[in-house]
Amino acid sequence: MWAYESVFYQIYPLGFCGAPFENDGNLQSRIRKVNDWIPHIQKLGANAVYFSPVFESDTHGYNTRDYAKIDVRLGTNEDFKEVCANLHAAGIRVVLDGVFNHVGRGFWAFQDVIHNRENSPYKDWFHISFEGNSNYNDGLWYEGWEGNYDLVKLNLRNEDVIQHIFWAVKQWIEEFGIDGIRLDVAYCLDKDFSRRLRAYCDGLKQEFFLLGELLHGDYNQFMNDEMLHSATNYECYKGLFSSFNSMNMFEIVHSLLRQFGPENWTLYKGKHLLAFVDNHDVSRIASNLNNEAHLPLIYAMAFGMPGIPCIYYGSEWGAKASKSEGDPALRACFDAPVENELTAWIEKLAEAKKHSNALNYGDFRSVVLTNRQCIFERRCDDERVLVAVNADGEGYTAHFDAGCGCATDLITGEAFDFGGGAYLPPYSAKFLLMER
To answer: Measured in whole angstroms, how far is the alpha carbon of residue 257 from the centre of its chain?
Structure first.
């Protein structure tokens, strides 16, 4: 599948475009700003864009009002159609956020229930009791996502709800030509709904990609041949920055072995999880790392490990923001992209990843592991790549049976000689394509 050979770029449109937090109802074609960033996205090496919510919502996008209408704060459907066409013309696929577990209080069907109560034809679209009340004092109780009553949980066992969502997905494909959906809080979705969605999407468009937001537990319950193609790798997200901050590479390699290692009991061997170092919900990685010298290295790990690497807009040049500052700080508006040494480094990582069968599909095996260094092997058929990382400020020489004397660093194109051991300079990472 195309997604397994891709590098993703995430944009949170409402923040990216500098839209007001509250939906003020004023139409402004802010989403066209993406057009100006397409050359940067191309140069960075990303060939898929994942858009956080773009549809009409109450505030932050995850409280949908209308699945068929682009948020007025971003523009019109025609504006977004133009953006998608320009991305596709540049060879960049488009994945949208599908927020199907819940909607906003402004969702048209919920508003009908508020006004018509028991007489509303949509009362069974939600989990409602007319004998209770909510903290909005509506004179009725309803289930909200994790107790948040601004997020009204949908009844995904209701056939009319399912068909409405399916209709929306079809509209997205027909109108915008989208190539996939990221399912918000996929761990909350009814599993039968997820199976039906997969079958429906398979029938609409070949290789239509379904990615689920999963936080913990066994991802296989949701990611399998009948449901989702991929899931967010939150276990390794935490393990990546924690390993560098504690100078304990055992943590991330333990997770990678648990997920993808050579043993038969590993959880996700042969599967492709979304690998990321930050996103719209967590602190930016430049604010999360204790040592800024580790910033290029953590990206090398994310691109070298099994999975689909995803870059969050702005973080490619080292933008900072802490979760403690609130979500708006994480979802900033930048006037223009910045290009620096980090973006140039990520460009090289992306080029290496996209064109290597071993990095896209290879098995995972740990070769050398210390607190401050790790070398692991990615192998697919006759292609073999060693991903080598030295997180220490001192040079390090690893002695092991490399199986050959020479290699080429896919990141820099330089020849690498194993004579006398594998020397890794301070704060360095290499993708070593081994000679056959």
So the answer is: 21
Mean pLDDT over each residue of the chain, to the nearest integer: 96
* 182 within 8 A of 198, measured Cβ to Cβ: no
Q: In this structure, is the dihedral angle defined by the CA atoms of residues 309, 310, 315 and 320, taken in order, positive or negative?
A: negative
Q: 165 near 196, Cβ under 8 Å?
A: no
What confidence category does residue 402 fall into, taking pLDDT thresholds of 50, 70 and 90?
A: confident
Query: 330 with 282: CB under 8 angstroms?
Result: yes
The number of angstroms, rounded, from the C-alpha of 363 to the middle of its chain's C-alpha atoms is: 22
Task: Give the pLDDT mean for 386-393.
Answer: 98
Report pLDDT digits (tens) over 136-183.
999 999 999 998 999 999 999 999 999 999 999 999 999 999 999 999
Average pLDDT over residues 205-228: 96
Nearest Cα neighbor of 73 from 117, 22, 121 is 22
pLDDT, residue 279, reads 98
Query: With bands split at pLDDT 50, 70 and 90, how would you rate the model's confidence at 403?
Result: confident
The alpha helices in 205-308, defined as continuous H runs, are 234-245, 250-260, 285-288, 295-304
Looking up tokens 């051991």, which residue turns up? 421
Helices (H) and strands (E) in the chain, counts: 13, 23
Burial class (CB in 10 A: 0-12, 13-18, 19+), 261: buried
Q: Are 417 and 405 in contact (CB under 8 A)?
A: yes
According to the model, what pLDDT value does residue 401 have? 86
Bridge-based pairing state of the strands 373-380 and 383-390: antiparallel
Long-range contacts of range 202-209, CB-CB < 8 Å, 24 or more positions apart? 204/169, 204/170, 204/173, 205/173, 205/179, 207/1, 207/2, 207/3, 207/179, 208/173, 208/179, 208/180, 208/181, 209/1, 209/2, 209/3, 209/93, 209/95, 209/179, 209/180, 209/181
The share of the chain scoring above pLDDT 70, in percent, equals 100
Cβ–Cβ < 8 Å for 379, 365: yes
**Contact criterion met (CB below 8 Å) for 47 and 91:** yes
User: Is a pLDDT exceeding 90 seen at residue 270?
Assistant: yes
**Dihedral of alpha carbons 413, 90, 211, 225, sign:** negative
Measured distance CA(65)–CA(75) in Å, rounded: 15
DSSP 3-state of 72: coil
Query: 291 near 229, Cβ under 8 Å?
Result: no
